[in-house]
Design a protein that fits this description.
The complex is a heterotrimer of chains A (243), B (467) and C (207). Chain A is of the alpha/beta class and 243 residues long. Chain A has 2 domains: 3-118, no CATH class; 131-237, Rossmann fold. Helix content of chain A is 52%, strand content 11%. Chain A has helices at residues 9-14, 16-28, 44-48, 52-66, 77-91, 95-104, 111-118, 138-143, 149-155, 178-181, 183-200, 210-222, 232-237, and strands at 3-5, 33-34, 71-74, 108-110, 131-134, 161-163, 204-207, 228-231. In chain A, the strands form 2 sheets. Chain A has a 4-stranded parallel beta sheet with strand order 2-1-3-4, sandwiched between helices. In chain A, helix 12 links the parallel strand 7 and strand 8. The longest helix of chain A is centred in the last third of the chain and has 18 residues, at 183-200. Chain A starts with a strand and ends in a 6-residue tail after the last helix. Chain C is of the alpha/beta class. Chain C has one domain: Rossmann fold, CATH 3.40.50. In chain C, the strands form 3 sheets. Chain C has a 6-stranded parallel beta sheet, sandwiched between helices. The chains are: A alpha/beta (243), B alpha/beta (467), C alpha/beta (207). Chains in contact: A-B, B-C. Chains B and C meet through helix 2, helix 3, helix 4, strand 1 and helix 5 of B and helix 1, helix 4, helix 5, strand 9 and strand 10 of C.
């Protein structure tokens, strides 16, 4: 199977460790991962902010870049949801693009989908002796219906203690440009999320999206909380006690 | 033709929200109420095995109605007229208010009793009647609370959701005649006080005013779904009944009700069925009002119909489930939306009904978390419509330029890679001092409550290239 | 006024014609036609109790006795025109088209109204009244503070679709009653007893 990694622009610049973790987990499982260097951004921020025309070159770029792969994996529920849920709508009216999207969108997976649904794995041989709490990010939860796929992977990690998060399914308040345009409401939502994370006493707050984690982590840091954000791919990649 | 009335926000959402955010009591009240109803809704929806099939049917029935609306409206008018009702049409809120006021004046009544109705709130009927010297009494408990407090509704189902029990007691003490200090803040005692207050009004009123949840085209039947029995009182006891109905409330036939009578109560109050549902068709000799009027209103609905993506908002059955699950609504309440239709549905309905103005900021009042779409009994894809409406939203020149230049960078791998390098180099001098805590505008909106990490020394693609 | 209203009608209809979606819609009806595999009496009782209605059982032979006990403390018993006379041995006020019971009489303290119903829905605990002779005018079951409703077991449908399909004529005045009057308007908590009858007793009778 030809697996391509779609790193996403946020991870590429800000969280390269998550990408390295995805590569490490898949290679440990015996797969080869390709990184097509023509990739840039999925266009979500533009499309969701009302700049559809400006998003279209990115939609086309994605379809061209990944057309030849059997599977595309991204460590971001949000960007995968953009491809699977929004691309078909954005492509409407352009038959070539519609066909391209129809071919690639169903083969684009969030990491947990690839591992659990396609590769049939829940134990990736990871060791992570820490307390964690899991925040299911909105697009993974409600657009991709990830359900407890990431959790089933975390449950397979040796030494990991999972603590339930109060109001887990509630949005952290990020919402892309929402965090800036409606900073007050966003901050109020974030305060509740950070409070719930702190109440668990866990060392880490885990999620499938680094953009949400950057938001929650930024809030925790401002509150001088001890809990730290971590993408679950990095937990799955971990094989020792060092974090 | 744009809609008018109490659906036009005067302030941009972020400004209105800022004021509401400062009210800690409001947030406590909203949190308690919305969390109570969320759990109840999940419980009663969970026991319906065919919930998803009901949603699909409900959405399709409404879509079918929109596709056949001219024929169905004419059929409804014909059937209702044949059954003894008089049907009127109003293009906007002013015209609707004018028609209703004239009808009340014909009866010589100086007082009317009202069933809770979003349509009459939307057109500002109470204000219009008052200007004509006619006193309208709201008889739904929550509407009564809002009316006594001289406030405006903040929720579709429970307009007084922003008040807690002790605040309601205070309102009753100061505004409801005959209430004494002995009144406790027990919900039962408060409901009893409202019962006593309204009893005489019900028994003497000659004109009742209602909306309708559904209007059946085949038979000309109107349907009102309620809980307290105030609706039945207003629909049964007066001699004259005037019902204000949005043109999208049409259902083709009686059998379609079986879907909506399953979807609506469970989605709105979290009950298997609401205590009372009334259906009447024109006039029944010897039973109920002997004169019935129906005012069909457009008020921006046909404008909404003209948008291929946005028209799904017209499926809305006003259940409020989207408000109750919305994290934004929970923090700011309904007043921040500046329309009688607040929350996620309001954010897509109000701007479409009214066109330009502050309402255009409403589609940005969402993180696109999707909780509303999941809860919607008629599958209105609210996030999809929000994103769609943002195409037409207000955009500053600076913002537009920023998005255009990012798009220009992102459409070419070399420009993109160069930008990553530049971002990394630009932040190099700051490295080692921890995350950023204060940034200049516009990034200051981020650092108001959040630190920002710096990019690491090496991007992923740089690491990959060296691998 | 009339001329203006006609203009509005034509303008609205023209706008709807211009803006409506062009593609016809196929409506799927894959939801369940009835709630199958349940004991409808048991489920109806469960739902009614949940709504805080009183629930009583009777046979055709014991119905008069059961009803008699339920209205024992009532000052006045009002019945619709067509309620079977054999249900009551004591005095009743019978509503009729010629001599309708006044709203004042219905509103007096201690009034109980006894009606039949058209159909009941087990899954939702709902009684449907359709103004047939044994149910009468809508006001009868509305203004008195105590409503006793007799439901025959063969009138109980499982779910909403099956119940609505049983109604003889949907253009008659219909009232769906699910428990006593209630409100959720204070902090979204349900409280029973507002404007409609605060006490609802349902007698489930077997023919």
């Amino acid at each position: 199977m030809r697996i391509a990694l779609f790193i996403t622009c946020v991870n590429d610049l800000m969280f390269p460790g998550t990408g390295k973790a995805v590569v490490s987990v898949l290679e440990r499982l015996g797969h080869t991962v390709d990184f097509p260097e023509a990739q840039t951004c999925c266009g979500q921020m533009h499309a969701n902010s009302g700049y559809r025309a400006e998003a279209m070159p990115m939609v086309r770029g994605f379809v061209e870049t990944f057309a030849d792969y059997d599977a595309v994996v991204a460590p971001s529920g949000s960007c995968v949801a953009m491809v699977r849920d929004s691309y078909p709508r954005l492509a409407l009216g352009d038959p070539d693009l519609e066909a391209g999207v129809a071919a690639i969108a169903p083969r684009t997976y969030e990491l947990a989908e690839l591992l659990v649904d396609v590769l049939g794995v829940t134990d990736v041989g990871a060791v992570f002796p820490h307390t964690v709490t899991y925040h299911p990010t909105c697009h993974g939860l409600r657009m991709l219906r990830l359900g407890d796929k990431p959790l089933s992977l975390l449950r397979g990690v040796q030494g990991l203690e999972l603590r339930p998060l109060e109001g887990a399914q509630e949005c952290c308040g990020f919402g892309g440009t929402f965090a800036l345009k409606n900073a007050g409401v966003s901050s109020a939502m974030l305060a509740d999320k950070c409070g719930a994370v702190e109440d668990t006493g866990a060392e880490y707050v885990v999620a499938a999206d680094n953009s949400c984690l950057m938001h929650i982590g930024g809030g925790l840091s401002r509150r001088a909380a001890t809990a730290r954000p971590i993408h679950y791919a990095e937990i799955l990649a971990s094989t020792g006690s060092a974090s | 033709m744009n809609g008018t009335g109490n659906i036009v926000a005067l302030k941009p959402f972020p400004d209105a929200a800022r004021l509401e955010l400062d009210d800690a009591q409001l947030r406590t009240n909203l949190r308690r109420a919305t969390h109570t109803i969320r759990d109840k809704r999940l419980r009663v929806v969970g026991e319906v095995d065919d919930w998803e099939q009901l949603r699909l049917s409900g959405a399709a029935i409404k879509d079918d109605v929109l596709a056949r609306l001219p024929e169905l409206l004419e059929r409804f008018e014909e059937a209702a007229t044949k059954a003894g009702a008089v049907v009127h049409w109003a293009r906007d809120s002013a015209e609707a208010c004018e028609i209703v006021t004239a009808l009340v004046k014909e009866t010589a009544a100086r007082e009317v009793v009202k069933v809770k109705s979003m349509a009459t709130q939307e057109i500002g009927l109470n204000e219009a009647l008052e200007a004509a010297g006619i006193a309208a009494t709201e008889t739904d408990l929550a509407e009564l609370i809002v009316q006594l407090a001289e406030d405006t509704p903040s929720h579709i189902l429970v307009p007084a959701i922003h008040y807690n029990r002790s605040q309601i007691r205070e309102i009753f003490l100061s505004k409801m005649p005959g209430v004494t200090r002995g009144l406790t803040d027990e919900p039962r005692a408060l409901a009893e006080a409202a019962r006593k207050h309204l009893r005489a009004k019900f028994l003497t009123a000659t004109v009742g005013i209602s909306g309708a949840n559904f209007a059946i085209a085949d038979t000309g039947t109107l349907v009102v779904v309620e809980s307290e029995g105030n609706g039945r009182m207003c629909l049964t006891l007066p001699q004259t009944l005037i019902s204000v109905v949005g043109i999208e409330k049409i259902l083709p036939d009686f059998s379609s009700l079986d879907v909506f009578l399953q979807l609506l109560p469970r989605s709105s109050t979290g009950e298997r069925m609401n205590p009372y549902t009334s259906m009447w068709t024109g006039v029944t000799p010897g039973d109920g009002p002997q004169t019935t009027h129906i005012v069909l209103i457009d008020n921006g609905r046909t404008a909404t119909l003209s948008d291929e993506v946005g028209r799904q908002a017209l499926r809305c059955i006003r259940c409020s489930a989207c408000l109750n699950v919305c994290p934004v609504y929970e923090r700011v309440g309904g007043h921040a939306y500046g329309s009688v239709y607040p929350g996620p549905i309001g954010a897509i309905l109000s701007p479409q009904m009214t066109g330009d103005g502050a309402n255009k900021t409403l589609p940005y009042a969402s993180t696109l978390c999707g909780a509303c779409f999941d809860a919607c009994p008629v599958r209105i894809n609210i996030p999809e419509v929000l994103v769609h409406l943002r195409q037409k939203g207000p955009k500053s020149r600076a913002e537009h330029a920023a998005f255009a230049s990012i798009s220009w960078i992102m459409r070419d791998r070399r420009r993109y890679a160069a930008a990553l390098r530049a971002a990394r180099r630009g932040s190099a001098p700051l490295r080692g001092r921890g995350p950023l805590r204060r940034l200049p505008w516009p990034a200051s909106a981020w650092t108001v409550s959040r630190d920002l990490p710096l990019p690491p020394k090496e991007s992923f693609r740089e690491w990959w290239a060296k691998r | 006024m009339v001329g203006q209203a006609m203009n509005a009608r034509e303008e609205i209809l023209a706008r709807v014609r211009a803006h409506r979606p062009s593609a016809p819609v196929t409506v799927p009806r894959d939801y369940l036609p009835d709630v199958a595999g349940i004991d409808v009496v048991e489920v109806l009782v469960d739902r009614l109790v949940d709504y805080k209605a009183g629930v009583h059982r009777a046979s055709a032979a014991s119905l008069a006795e059961v009803l008699g006990a339920l209205v024992a403390s009532s000052a006045t018993v009002v019945v619709p025109p067509g309620l079977p006379p054999e249900w009551f041995t004591g005095p009743v006020v019978r509503d009729s088209a010629d001599a309708p019971v006044s709203v004042g009489t219905l509103d007096a303290a201690g009034v109980t109204v006894v009606t039949g119903c058209a159909v009941a829905i087990a899954a939702t605990g709902t009684l449907i009244l359709d103004a047939a002779p044994d149910q009468g005018r809508r006001v009868l079951s509305l203004v008195p503070d105590h409503h006793v409703c007799v439901v025959w077991t063969d009138q109980i449908a499982g779910g909403v679709p099956a119940a609505l399909a049983r109604l003889a004529d949907p253009s008659r005045p219909l009232t769906l009653i699910s428990g006593p009057s209630a409100t959720s308007d204070i902090e979204l908590n349900r409280v029973e007893g507002v404007h409609g009858p605060r006490r609802l007793d349902v007698v489930i009778a077997t023919r």
